[in-house]
Amino acid sequence: MATTTADAARAPVRIDAAALSGPRFAALPPLALYVHIPWCLRKCPYCDFNSHEAKGEAPEASYVEALVADLELALPSIWSRRVFSVFIGGGTPSLFSAAAIDRLLAAIRARVPLEPGAEVTLEANPGTFEREKFAGYRDAGVNRLSLGIQSFDPQHLKDIGRVHDADEARRAADAALAIFGNVNFDLMYALPRQTVAEAEADLEVALAFSPPHLSFYHLTLEPNTLFHRYPPPLPDDETTADIEDAVHSKLDAAGYGHYETSAYARPGRECRHNLNYWKFGDYLGIGAGAHSKLSFADRVVRQVRHKQPKQYLEQIALGAPLMEDSVVKRDDIGFEFMLNALRLTEGVPSTLFAERTGYPLSLVRRGLEEAEARGLLERDPSLLRPTPLGQRFLNDLQQLFLAD
Ligand SMILES: C[S@@+](CC[C@H](N)C(=O)[O-])C[C@H]1O[C@@H](n2cnc3c(N)ncnc32)[C@H](O)[C@@H]1O
Ligand code: SF4
Predict the structure, then answer these.
(1) What tens digit of pLDDT does each residue of 146-168 get?
(2) Is 344 helix (H, G, I), strand (E, B) or coil?
(3) Are 284 and 368 in contact, with CB atoms under 8 Å apart?
(4) Which atom of ligand 2 approaches the CA of 127 most closely?
């Protein structure tokens, strides 16, 4: 009889006993650093990220100082660990000058051991684009730019309330590719009134730039946003599914691998920082509202820093930036791992579960059995990999791993 992932998880008693105690790590997961910059020129009507309209200049000098203090306070929790990736996200980090980003990266390098060749990404918005600024970021050590284009279509950009127009998007895309080479475009689909032909045309424009990486997000109506309160006329489910099919086949034909639900890359250009989230690696997040997940020999903790920039700055001055600090429960960690790993088209090796959670795979045996029985998970004991059906119904698949 063929062995399945669920069979492999049908663990000997010895391992089940281990599952009753806390996690055990043979080695800690890889560690990445996330830095949050919480300001934007204007709040977009669909956005529920921790971003705030910068009324006037964002206080970049005091904020960089706070980030450095934040990192210093966090050093004991990552002592002696190397960092393989830095991601400066937001908000709109490109509101900050190149000199501020230079100070920030120099301070990081002086305090944590960055691996040689570490990926250093900065999120930029075409509405804050200046060529010299991009060159300054590169000179400061940024080696990957993630550009929030969203669409190249003038009407759609207006409809989603972006501060930039199609011309600015094109100029920023040109400069980003010339200066960095390693560039991601963030694009969204299922925009108000968008047709399949329009979505395809938008993608054609993006592909003409040949960016190494593309993120394609389905525009969602998030609670606490203007679009949620006053929903725009969005394409129906059938049109949205047709857009997805068209996007997938165009990107496939153009040589992009669809490696995660919303991410496409040319071979070798997958985002290492985001892959670490999906593979349940560790990350320290500094800055207003930043999230961290850190493993220790006997526990995994999650932390959230104060969200409001003003409060964050006050709390940093008091040496207490954390708003939440909790140990991940044994009952939750299996679901958290699967929630991330199942987003990956190729899945992950089964052995990664124990490496990253500190528990044996038998912790999620019931979910595995059900997922395999429903055809949502491949029956391969060496892999945790969603089937094409599992990718299509990813939510249903992930829910199977929720604790009772
Ligand atoms: C945190 S934002 C930062 C990028 C930058 N601030 C910008 O918007 O240009 C990262 C990406 O998330 C996507 N995003 C934000 N809100 C979204 C929503 N409601 N639905 C789908 N994607 C969304 C956008 O593509 C955006 O570029
Ligand atoms: S620019 Fe980006 S982070 Fe800022 S409000 Fe718009 S989508 Fe959100």
Answers:
(1) 999 999 999 999 999 999 999 99
(2) strand
(3) no
(4) 1
Please work out whether the CB of residue 274 comes within 6 Å of at least one atom of ligand 1.
no
Query: Which ligand 2 atom lies nearest to the CA of residue 47?
Result: 8
| 100, 327, 368, 372, 388 from 12: Cα distances, Å | 55, 27, 17, 21, 31
The answer to whether the beta carbons of residues 381 and 3 sit under 8 Å apart is yes
Is residue 387 very low, low, confident or very high in pLDDT (cuts 50, 70, 90)? Answer: very high
Structural contact between residues 288 and 310, judged by C-beta atoms closer than 8 angstroms: no
> Ligand 1, residues 49, 189, 224: which to mutate, most atoms within 8 A of Cβ?
49
Q: Give the pLDDT score at 404.
A: 73
Cβ of residue 47 lying under 6 Å from some atom of ligand 2:
yes
Helix axes 60-74, 98-111, angle to 10 degrees: 10
Banded pLDDT at 4 (limits 50, 70, 90): low
Question: CB-based burial of residue 210 (10 Å sphere; 0-12 exposed, 13-18 middle, 19+ buried)?
Answer: exposed
pLDDT tens sequence across 25-40: 999 999 999 999 999 9
Which residue is listed with tokens 């939440």? 324
- CA of 114 relative to ligand 2 center, distance in Å: 28
Read off the pLDDT of residues 186-231 as tens digits, 9 standing for 90 and up: 999 999 999 999 999 999 999 999 999 999 999 999 999 999 999 9
C-beta separation of 162 from 150 below 8 A: yes
Residue with the two structure tokens 């999650």 = 302
Q: pLDDT digits over 68-126, tens only?
A: 999 999 999 999 999 999 999 999 999 999 999 999 999 999 999 999 999 999 999 99
| Atom in ligand 1 nearest the alpha carbon of residue 148 | 9
- Cis preceding-peptide flag for 161 (omega within 30 of 0): no
Say if strands 114-124 and 83-90 run parallel, antiparallel, or are unpaired: parallel
What is residue 11's predicted lDDT score, i.e. its pLDDT? 45
Cα of 129 to ligand 2 centre, how many Å?
15
**Per-residue CA distances from 362 to 51, 138, 191, 337, 365 (Å):** 40, 46, 42, 13, 5
Q: Tell me if 126 CB under 6 Å of ligand 1.
A: no
Contact 321, 306 (CB under 8 A): yes
The protein residue with its alpha carbon nearest to ligand 2, atom 3, reads 91
The side-by-side arrangement of strands in the sheet containing 299-305 is 257-260, 263-265, 213-218, 183-189, 144-150, 114-124, 83-90, 31-37, 282-286, 291-296, 299-305, 322-327
